[in-house]
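Take a look at this chain, tokens included, and explain the fold to me:
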Amino acid sequence: MKEGTKVVREDFEDSTGAINTPIYQSTAFRFPEGEKYRYSREANPTTLELSKKIAEIEGGEIGVSFSSGMGAISTTLLTLLKPGSSLLVTMDMFGRSLRFCNDFLRQWGVEVEVTKPGNTNLLESSKIHHDVIFVESITNPLLRVIDIEALSKIAKENGSLVIVDSTFASPINQKPIELGADIALESASKFLAGHNDVIAGVAAGPSSIITKIDLMRRTLGTSLEPQPAYLVLRGLKTLKIRMDVINKNAMQIAEFLEDHPKVQKVYYPGLKSHPDYSIAKRVLKGFGGVVSFEVRGTMNDAIRVMQNLKVIIPAQSLGGVNSLISHPPTMSHRTLTPEERKIVGINESLLRLSVGIEEVEDLTDDLDKALNSI
């Protein structure tokens, strides 16, 4: 089946003949029929259908669902690492992910190597064995595109496990497992669910590894409730058509911003000016729905632009049908130190725009008026 069919189709078997997966809002299931599920923290029919669907569209053997994207990240890493293990990450990633790796895991006894941004630094560091290499396929917020294909090849030669946070790409634009990664995980709150109304996380990969992660999920309690699982399943049905519109809108907006006199710099993998443009063309089927740009001015100017928008909503999340804009230095990456932000390249005037499915002319007009207000 093609991608647009995979995300719509559900295989759930129900005696009522329901055409959508039901919400099984039950804490427990009666024996002996309910032995498969027992207790909803461990397994729930609605949540298991989502896990099955994620494995199918990501190309993994099995999948697992979590209460959040950070739940997926923390549970996965805590399963695969222990005191004395080695972990390789890049500094340019979501602030909470970096803090969990560089602060908590390091204090727990994991040897953490943090590389500076760019594929050259990452690929060079990956030539030395690490138990786990954890990267974002498109980094947050400067949208560097990791060469997953090259990284996975080097990692396999050195016996390293590659985990890819593919939230910004979505399985429509990239399947990390097809490029050689071992595990693909995402914050399902973003493009997968797509309506800014649910918190969830997912992961997929080989059954030998995901089964262990699933057992850790049951122990830690990072389990997904059936109601949000249902909302993600609903969102998946429109994922392909949403991403088609979002990819197109984002490209047009990136080009518009690159020509705007009040914009200093634009970060978008689809632009030829992007440092990873050649890699992006090779490893991505679409360039994604996030555009970051630096306002020509101060931090106050950037915040003023964000506040003067009328169609685009100032908010920290991304990946929904509504366009959202945020100021990474004071929002998603506020936990990074000034020195860390400087190394990554996060300037005070940086804004991160998550492009939605609105009419693109309304979005560019909104941006133009807000930028010209400074």
